[in-house]
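Here we describe the complex-level prediction in full. Unlike the single-chain runs in Section 2.1, the two entities below were treated as one system.
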Amino acid sequence: MDLIDLFKNKQIGENVTVEGWIRNHRDQKNFGFIDFSDGTCQEHLQIVYDDSLPNFDEIKKLLVGCAIEASGTIIESKGSQDIELQATSIKILGTCPSDYPLQAKGRPTREFLREIAYLRPRTNLFQAVFRVRSIAAYAIHKYFQERGYVYFHAPIITASDCEGAGEMFQVTTLPLDELKGKLDYTKDFFGKLAGLTVSGQLEAETFALSYKKTYTFGPTFRAENSNTKVHASEFWMIEPEMAFCDLEGDMDVMEDMLKYVVKYVLDNAPQEIDLFDKFVEKGLKEKLERLVNSEFTRIDHKDVITILKKANVEWEFEPEYGQDIAKEHEKYITDYFNGPVFIKNWPKDIKAFYMKQNSDNETVAAVDLEVPGAGELMGGSQREENYEKLLNRMEELNMETSALDWYLNLRKYGGCVHSGFGMGFERLLIYLTGVENIRDVIPYPRTPGNCDY
Amino acid sequence: MDLIDLFKNKQIGENVTVEGWIRNHRDQKNFGFIDFSDGTCQEHLQIVYDDSLPNFDEIKKLLVGCAIEASGTIIESKGSQDIELQATSIKILGTCPSDYPLQAKGRPTREFLREIAYLRPRTNLFQAVFRVRSIAAYAIHKYFQERGYVYFHAPIITASDCEGAGEMFQVTTLPLDELKGKLDYTKDFFGKLAGLTVSGQLEAETFALSYKKTYTFGPTFRAENSNTKVHASEFWMIEPEMAFCDLEGDMDVMEDMLKYVVKYVLDNAPQEIDLFDKFVEKGLKEKLERLVNSEFTRIDHKDVITILKKANVEWEFEPEYGQDIAKEHEKYITDYFNGPVFIKNWPKDIKAFYMKQNSDNETVAAVDLEVPGAGELMGGSQREENYEKLLNRMEELNMETSALDWYLNLRKYGGCVHSGFGMGFERLLIYLTGVENIRDVIPYPRTPGNCDY
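The structure predicted for the assembly as a whole is:
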């Protein structure tokens, strides 16, 4: 029986059998207590045994980390929990040596646990982090599927490049050690230079113009050589894309989706959230509950700059019209509005080529969502649906338009107003768990110089 | 309003506004019929308009592929459908030229449509295929999530190699054109040779031994230079892994999951299934319904060989004890048992190193599921949980054990009986849709020499 079901349907006096691992063990002369977890929920079960068990002497010696099967009766507990298990039988399924790195005593640092990433989901903290990762992923699918969005698997290996070259990993089967000089990619596996996708958005637009509503949820890659707390070389992205939807409609979906996912996690991972609230980020639960019930402000980029300029603050970076905003500005503006803020209509020169050009010729219909305590959580835009305008912008930026003829053609063949956004899944998880390093919300993170497992 | 909601809640006399695309258009002198789809469901809506519309002359000229917004009243239809829309207004949102490749007349071949993969989801067939892809993906998540499995994102870029080298794509950021001779991978992005994963199973086992039940659902890669109907270089895999679960339990999950997913698709994509049944594979619906209600046979590999040897058939490949079985054998055996067959306990020499060695020293606790009309749909095994036996087997096979020390350690630190299986998502889709070429169930397929979009 799974512990999660046992705790849900517990009946004093019931006989059950459970299988899992010893997380702690205190043995006395004639009896002992096992702190037991099977990983199906955050809660542990206390197992009490005594010398009436035929293998009592053997059980007494069991160390932290052992796998056991325990049968017995559910009884009322005298300890901190409602119930415990009075064992009538304990079978040893797998032993564990005394040098097992995860001992019950002492709290290992997160840095140390990164070195033994294959064991860290057995700790309470990481058990909670990766369960929330799973629950949040499901919430995202559930949200979009129940609203008729088609899940689109964007290609991972790609010959197109969404945001400009230079940050892509190259994918090849050429025998590199045997080659000299300029490579001939017509001889490579795909007959041309190929790399790992940095975004599935452009391809997702083809699905939006077929199904009206679509979303991606898959891995994306950046070969940036940056070692920060929030950058990984491999991360998962959610990229919804909606036809017949303008920037206002885009923001409606962003807000509704985020509130749904946060509420789903609050409802479905209450013990995990309590753990984060207690041990990782004080006030996390309240922060999440407030988000679910908050009004999201919508304001133009230029009006944000005006507010920042008027603020009585010594900025490290002076806010300027036409320029990007810094972390300190993000924080100020969410404090100012006391809640999440959509900053929209950005200067076109600092945004991507595919964004809808506004009639002022200076801004594009782009939006970033700034969230208190997290900064930028999502970014989106209305896409340029006008063939000529899009082509001109690509030529202005010296882009190779022939490689994207299919993308341009979407504007010719029944093209229409459409919008979408992207959310980095790990950025959401950092917000949901309070764990601030991206290496701690990915099971096996990839960063410059790190590719274990 | 989405068409799917309109068809669900249709009320004669109701006024609605819909946005979508013209799939066909017949115009008469004073009125016209538009075959209209918005991609939210398989069904199209007929829109009737007449010369009472102020822009009647303009509408008359609209070609297939145009995007429009139509408002009007739902009326009873005289045609094949229940209802149609009597338009009171039609706005043109996006035009489409006469050389648009998807004309209403003529049925383009699947080969031709592969050349314009970005437009093919607009055809009835591919609209259905990729919607079923989305629905089946959700069914898989739903099945595992509702049963407490933790969704595990296996790493995509990896330095380990699950099934032996030679089939992996290499991932690099080295400036290849400038290099000569033996490469120094300590200078590469990850400081070592890295490639694209061929399976997330080994890493998934670390989660099974933490959470009891886990599953992956993500892209995997093979750099095999094979051009067949069933091989792609990039495909999605589902890899569940369960602790405290033996081969029999493994088969229980395989059977239950498959039946659930097939039934979910039958229930949630009835129009798509009807389309496949009518135009792609006659009898498909009955095939799927039979699977849901069938008993799955469980039989040892050696007993399968005995049956094959006794059969009065001229085999192309003679069945042999200790050998793999061929397509013709798979077909015979599912016919013989008139339903799905689990073939279990395979000769160890033709199976992977991590499979549980049976006490006969000749077989391993592996299983393949053979399904009528599809052949092998899934493969799984109980994993070797004995440290010594696993190590010996790896050494026998000349594997580099140091790179997999973490995998071996799982057997030392509370290791226990555990099992899992893998299902190629596209193989399932071929079975569900009757579309036989893997290039037609992946939005943007990657095969040798092909990497468009």
